[in-house]
């Protein structure tokens, strides 16, 4: 790619005290002329207003935070800046954004940084810029505070949920296309007829009736009882008076939870008297969504540990024990101080990839401490364990312990028998039991509830124990290989409407039942039917790949579109280039190993496939279409 060289760098965004400047930003959602992935691209220059320190000085300070960078050599300030932005961009979450590129010119460099969420990546970029300037001026920055702000920005994005991100990362590893559908609020995996859409662990193949049934905890409980599985005694109430009556009838301790609830919100276990029941009932009411009726479950509280059994596609794949948060006394610190110290541990981070969140202090915690004759101001003797909650809510600081390998075969069969009754890809079954290594038939075992769309981070990153790769189990339900998620894609740098129709007709002769989508700068087509052309070029590509009937895509990407918008997708099965520019040649960069590349320069033809190259000259009046139509058969 050729750009005009800047001989005299002009300060654009830099302050007069800055040694560096960044400018000319572009964000691409997919591969572009600078990087083979979605990226933030910008120019970087030394301003010459303030002389920068030697590169070694920046590496020394940056290396205090990222020690592995000390062992690397950097050819220029731009290389160090790009590497630092890429490293900081992973945040403290281990994000999979590790690709970057740099193209150097006489007085500036163009840097490309892999990006998933534009606002977060821009924030990282400006943060690193401030860091470099602070180093130049021998000043400190509030690194941790700003990093937490960036993590919060990412977490609030559509990609920041722990389950969503885990699936996106796994899809990237497996080569499964995945992108967010903004208008629908869904993630799409795969292209065209190979697509699957969903929200977290809920997918379009799920039965919405079954999913809704799992939220009706009373009906679900009755159903499980009909199947012969153990469920606790209890009833549904809609007033405090009724709750008190049910509790007296089944005897304390009881558990109280909203019928319409999730993630343990509004749940109180081991309620031992009327005073506690009134508080628990109030918390359950507060957790009920506004559009839902007042319906609260009061049921017998079962003694034991809290477990989640997870099934994917009807098969048991993982089990986790969830323990309420606790602290250990040291003989001199208050419980509040112990909680503060615990929250400072590196393992407790409120990020989408952290195995433990920070312990939250609230009314339920204070009430439970009071039952133990304690308060947040109590000093606990050395080595005494103090449980802080009755409910093992991981979002409030609970601890997850992998139990997959300990599960008794009878309990696996139970989980799978339940899952077989629901047309749901993912199903979480919450149970109380002394342990999972004994059969449910022979010990005090009780099913609390079942959950559609269960979270998966606790299995993927338990606080204690081995990881279970649940995202792979989920995606392998739909795709054994990344290629299973794709449809054939043929990309041109220049194709007319007439040539598109000729190409479509050629393919339909071989596959008359196919639905073929095509887009060029002059139109959008599904087979021979013209569709509405959006001025935003990649929107046309998205609309076609979103079509659940699409068998194949034909797309034109000329130099101006590549430069201004980049591409929407990664990878082509065939690339056809007619007298390409240098930028258009980047279309050959992202092809698959078994793809075909056809290039015409003047009358000279080059065909590349699987490491073989065939070259020849077009005959007199021989059309180029004849060449690539013959080759299209190799990718169908």
TrEMBL record:
Nucleotide-binding is among the record's keywords:
yes
GO:BP terms for this protein?
SOS response
Q: Which Pfam families match?
A: CPSase_L_D2
Annotated keywords: ATP-binding, Nucleotide-binding
Q: Which InterPro entries match?
A: ATP-grasp, CPAse_ATP-bd
Q: Where's the ATP-grasp domain?
A: 221-479
- What cellular-component terms does GO give this entry? cytoplasm
| PANTHER family in alphabetical order | BETA-CITRYLGLUTAMATE SYNTHASE B-RELATED, RIBOSOMAL PROTEIN S6 MODIFICATION PROTEIN
Name of this protein:
Cyanophycin synthetase
The record lists the organism as Brasilonema sennae CENA114
């Amino acid at each position: 790619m050729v750009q005009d060289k800047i001989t005299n760098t002009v300060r654009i965004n830099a302050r007069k005290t800055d040694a560096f400047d960044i400018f000319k930003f572009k964000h691409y959602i997919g591969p572009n002329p600078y990087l083979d992935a979605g990226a933030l691209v910008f120019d970087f220059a030394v301003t010459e207003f303030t002389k920068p320190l030697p590169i070694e000085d920046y590496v020394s300070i940056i290396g205090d935070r990222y020690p592995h960078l000390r062992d690397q050599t950097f050819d220029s300030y731009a290389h160090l800046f790009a590497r630092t932005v890429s490293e900081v961009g992973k945040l403290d979450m281990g994000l999979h954004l590790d690709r970057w590129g740099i193209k150097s010119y006489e007085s500036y460099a163009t840097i490309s940084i892999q990006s998933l969420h534009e606002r977060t990546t821009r924030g990282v970029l400006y943060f690193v810029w401030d860091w470099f300037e602070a180093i130049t001026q021998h000043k400190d920055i509030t690194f941790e505070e700003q990093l937490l702000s960036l993590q919060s920005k990412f977490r609030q994005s559509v990609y920041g949920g722990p389950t969503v991100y885990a699936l996106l990362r796994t899809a990237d590893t497996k080569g499964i296309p995945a992108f967010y559908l903004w208008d629908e609020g869904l993630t799409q995996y795969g292209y065209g007829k190979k697509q699957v859409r969903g929200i977290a662990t809920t997918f379009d193949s799920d039965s919405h009736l079954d999913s809704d049934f799992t939220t009706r905890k009373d009906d679900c409980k009755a159903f499980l009882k009909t199947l012969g599985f153990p469920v606790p005694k209890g009833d549904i109430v809609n007033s405090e008076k009724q709750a008190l009556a049910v509790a007296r009838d089944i005897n304390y301790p009881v558990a109280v939870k909203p019928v319409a609830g999730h993630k343990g919100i509004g749940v109180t276990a081991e309620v031992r008297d009327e005073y506690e029941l009134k508080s628990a009932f109030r918390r359950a009411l507060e957790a009920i969504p506004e559009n839902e009726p007042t319906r609260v479950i009061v049921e017998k509280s079962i003694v034991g540990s809290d477990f989640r059994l997870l099934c994917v596609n009807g098969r048991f794949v993982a089990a986790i024990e969830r323990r309420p948060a606790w602290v250990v006394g040291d003989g001199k610190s208050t419980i509040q101080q112990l909680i503060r110290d615990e929250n400072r541990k590196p393992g407790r981070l409120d990020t989408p990839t952290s195995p433990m969140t920070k312990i939250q202090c609230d009314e339920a915690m204070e009430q439970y401490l009071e039952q133990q004759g304690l308060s947040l101001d109590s000093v606990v003797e050395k080595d005494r364990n103090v449980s802080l909650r009755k409910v093992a809510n991981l979002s409030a600081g609970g601890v997850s312990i992998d139990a997959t390998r300990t599960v008794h075969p009878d309990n696996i069969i139970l989980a799978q028998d339940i899952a077989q009754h629901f047309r749901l890809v993912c199903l979480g079954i919450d149970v109380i039991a002394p342990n999972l290594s004994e059969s449910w038939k022979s010990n005090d075992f009780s099913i609390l509830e079942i959950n559609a769309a269960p979270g998966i981070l606790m299995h993927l990153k338990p606080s204690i124990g081995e990881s279970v790769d649940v995202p792979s189990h989920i995606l392998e339900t739909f795709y054994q290989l990344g290629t299973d998620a794709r449809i054939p894609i043929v990309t041109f740098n220049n194709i007319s409407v007439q040539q598109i129709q000729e190409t479509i007709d050629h393919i339909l002769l071989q596959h008359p039942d196919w639905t073929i989508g095509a887009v060029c700068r002059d139109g959008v087509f599904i087979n021979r039917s013209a569709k509405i052309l959006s001025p935003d070029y990649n929107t046309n590509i998205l609309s076609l790949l979103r079509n659940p009937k699409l068998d194949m895509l034909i797309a034109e990407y000329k130099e101006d579109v590549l430069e201004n918008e980049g591409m929407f997708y990664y990878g082509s099965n065939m690339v056809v280039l007619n007298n390409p520019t240098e930028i258009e040649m980047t279309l050959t960069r992202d092809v698959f190993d078994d793809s075909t590349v056809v290039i015409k320069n003047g009358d000279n033809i080059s065909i590349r496939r699987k490491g073989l190259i065939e070259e020849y000259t077009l005959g007199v009046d021989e059309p180029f279409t004849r060449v690539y139509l013959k080759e299209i058969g190799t990718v169908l």
